[in-house]
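Hi, here's the filled form for the chain we discussed.

Project: internal
Contact: R.S.
Residues: 124
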Amino acid sequence: MSTQGQNEARVIPLRPQGGAAKQPAAVKEPLWRDVVGGVLRRERLAQQRTLKDVSEAARISMPYLSELERGRKEASSEVLAAAARALGLGLGDLLSLAQDDLVRYSQIRRAAPAAPYNGLCLAA
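And the returned structure, exactly as it came back:
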């Protein structure tokens, strides 16, 4: 028979308490959708344009464009090309900017492994 009362919950820790050295969290590489979404948002904001304006020009819904910018959706090449065109870019320009961000992320990661990607421009 248990020594605990009927209404008391028994707590079983999932991780060892105290004493154990904490392991640093592994830094994850950014997902492609996060990088591309960050580029789309950065370019839109640099042009001082609204989601509504760009979504109408690209002929995609405003909520979908918002999801793309936040890295919540994987876009087809057609949608990415339309969003890029709406921002005055070609698809190659968009992908080149995303590649530049990935290169900067890799450089930062090598220099300081604890720096996580935050979806924003990594330029100094």
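Let me know if anything looks off before we file it.
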